[in-house]
Amino acid sequence: PTKIEDDYTKLNDENYSFETTDDLKLNQEEKYKIAIEYQLDFILDYIEKKGTKNDVFILFGDHQPPFITPKKFGNETPIHIISSNENLNQVFKDIGFSDGLIPENPETTQMKHEGFYSLFMKGMNKAFGKDKSIDLPYLPDGHIIEED
Questions:
Q1: Secondary structure percentages of the chain, helix, strand, coil, to 5
Q2: What are the pLDDT digits (tens) for 78-129?
Q3: Which of 61, 69, 99, 143 is 20 to 30 A distant from 32 in Cα terms?
Q4: pTM of the model
């Protein structure tokens, strides 16, 4: 689909007609941009309508397809934390995350996926833990199971 359907169950009806990117006379790059915009609109619409003050939504972007993104842009993927809890948000801001979908300084706000879990747990404890004074470690390289 190219637009959010108010009643998504209509999409299950084989006789229901709706516009898709395949209907558009556009090249792959233009269709891809429309598909990404639809996905963001869909998840943000869901969060606005169904989200509660204690919900935490984590969006991991995908590696961009090579036919869309030149190799010089690398394999980095965006990570977005959507939460109204400032204690949780602050843990991410402390390492360079910023408000909004576009990072203020993409060169200095990169992290490895391996490090995400420890940072997330640190933030969850600061936001919802019984003892918020416990300062869980942030492990940028993840947990090292074996060392040489």
A1: 40, 5, 55
A2: 888 999 999 999 999 998 888 887 778 777 677 888 889 999 999 999 999 9
A3: 99
A4: 0.77
Beta bridge partners of 29: none
CA angle centred on 145, ends 144 and 148, rounded to 5°: 80
Q: Which residue would you say has higher pLDDT here, 126 or 77? A: 126
How far is Cα of residue 126 from the mean position of the Cα atoms in its chain? 21
Helix, strand, or coil here: 23? helix
The answer to whether residues 98 and 110 touch, using CB atoms and an 8 Å cutoff, is: no
Which two three-digit tokens encode residue 79? 């990570």
For residue 28, what are its two tokens?
């792959």
Tokens representing residue 40 in the block? 């963001």
Sequence-distant (≥ 6) Cβ neighbours of residue 67 within 8 angstroms? 28, 29
Q: How many CB atoms lie within 10 A of CB 61?
A: 11
| Tokens describing residue 59 | 């969006």
Half-sphere exposure of 6 (CA within 13 A, CB side): 0
